[in-house]
Write a structure and sequence with these properties.
With 199 residues, the protein is mainly α. Helices cover 83% and strands 0% of the residues. It folds into two domains: 46 residues; 124 residues.
Length: 199
């Protein structure tokens, strides 16, 4: 008797739970659709786009630092000196790679960059010991010597790349001039073959 009473109650509770879950799922889906549509409208609004662009620009903008002079390097912290050393080497490697990319022979310069990497890594290990304090004068002088050598290699690579590019530019200008001379001669010949029509 008692069992026959529980069966319809459990069945009704099961149906109620199933309907509640179904209703909740449908409600969440509808709210998600409406919210997504509203978010797209809000996100594509002109003021929102302008504000987000300004925020990204403000966060991503960093004023480039000028390279340190020798006296400034002697007063800088280990972290700043490491940054200066790393930037100098990266700029030199980029210029040498670019010079090689334009067809310049940079065999000796590439070797010098590789040789420069060894002392630079040793100096970097020393600078990591105490990155927040001012670097010792002797260590700063060694870093300055490596930076100057890196700058000299970069200047040589730039000069070689400029020479190679200048020769190609001169050749291009000569070819363009010859082509224009041929076109002018052809037009003059065509004019002489077809006299102007009488009006």
């Amino acid at each position: 008797m008692l069992a026959s009473l529980w069966i319809p109650i459990l069945a009704g509770a099961s149906v109620l739970v199933a309907l509640t879950l179904l209703f909740g799922t449908v409600l969440v889906f509808l709210l998600w659709r409406v919210g997504r549509r509203k978010w797209r409208t809000f996100r594509s609004h002109g003021l929102v786009v302008a504000a987000s662009t300004a925020w990204v620009s403000a966060r991503g903008y960093r004023r480039p630092r000028a390279p340190l002079s020798h006296p400034e390097l002697q007063k800088a912290t280990g972290r700043r000196v490491r940054h200066e050393l790393s930037c100098a080497l990266e700029r030199t490697e980029a210029v040498v790679a670019t010079a090689a990319g334009v067809g310049t022979s940079t065999g000796s310069l590439s070797g010098l960059v590789c040789q420069l990497r060894g002392p630079a890594e040793e100096l970097d290990r020393l600078l990591r010991i105490d990155p927040t304090h001012t670097v010792a004068t002797e260590l700063a002088d060694q870093v300055w010597s490596v930076v100057q050598a890196s700058n000299d290699i970069r200047a040589a690579a730039m000069a070689q790349a400029s020479d190679a590019t200048a020769e190609r530019v001169r050749q291009l200008v000569r070819d363009a001039h010859d082509e224009l001379v041929c076109i002018d001669a052809g037009l003059a010949s065509a004019r002489s073959m077809f006299p102007p029509l009488a009006r």
